Amino acid sequence: MEGGTTVTIAWQGRRVDAFLPHPLPRTGVDLPERVVRATEQAVASLRRADDRLAHRFEALARLMSRAEGVASSQIEGLRAPAELVAVAQLDPAAVDPTSAWVADNLAVVDASLAHACSSAPLTADDLHRWHVRLMAHGSLPDDLAGRFRQVHEWIGGPGPREAAYVPPPPEHVGPLMDDLLAFANAGDLDPVTLAAIIHAQFEAIHPYGDGNGRLGRVLIGWVLARRTGVEVPPPVSVVMARDPGGYLSGLVRWRQGDGAGWVDWVARAIIRSAEQVEVVVANAEELRLRWEGLVGDLRADAAAHRLLGLLPQHLVVTAPLVADLLGVSAPSARSAIEALAGRGILAPFHLPPVRPGRPAQWWMAADLLDVVTRWSR
Questions:
Q1: pLDDT tens-digit series, residues 37-50
Q2: CA–CA separation, 108 and 132 (whole Å)
Q3: CA distances from 366 to 105, 321, 346, 372, 374 (A)
Q4: pTM
């Protein structure tokens, strides 16, 4: 698979080479037998991981999408404590901008997986909408969010002459993205090869002014969910974050024409990610059993029991949130929190006030947060 060619652009009176990806193939892709086997193994591992999640800790899949969004942000150098990201999902104004920006990534992961479960084709409007959400707390000017770039871009260095990579000129972005979307919606390749190619091509096009890496990795999950029927694919970005050199060199190899090597790398990353799901499921199941033992003295219909089942979705809570989630009074919500806190399941943590008035009292599921944090590293 050839990656593309170069075109010349003018930059401050000088000539600079930019990369121009070839259109994506409309027929089958010729891959070595070993790579085909790797893609088949990756699909099988996705389905095994999905089977292991079935009937397990309620909302455990939510932890997987959380790990994907956190790790994808880490690849871009956006790091924030897990508890602050969880707060940002509920009240972004209560935390620092970086935590809110990571939470935006999680929201886009969720939106993309919901879309993948539908039958709707993927469109530029979908990408633009996700990009706007991704940039909600970023530094990109509002008029550049949710639209393909109209200027030259580069990666690394003070200008394109010193850059590590110069993507195609802006006039090529629209046609190239039309081609990518047509390929995503009609491509007849296996899910892993399709996901690898779409991600690499998206990164090569670099269609937005910022957020291309995170949105491109969202597309991996979208393809895998859409084409395999797995509701929440294992968080491949976790593996990518642990091997950034392999990930970035794989994208370079794609542009240089080594498509087989890139597909092979992605397939093996998916396999490793799926294998780790078993470890996380075991850790979460052990935690669930320990928690259930700690609340064994409470009535089965007690609000604290019901709150316990919601913690994988809501790693941090406040009394008003619990009251809303459970449909109970404020005193009952506080009693449920205090019951879990008294058993070491919830722990208080304090944020400096960012607005006038009485600050909210936050409670976190520290042990479950630790499961997510260790997985995302």
A1: 999 999 999 998 88
A2: 9
A3: 22, 18, 7, 10, 12
A4: 0.92
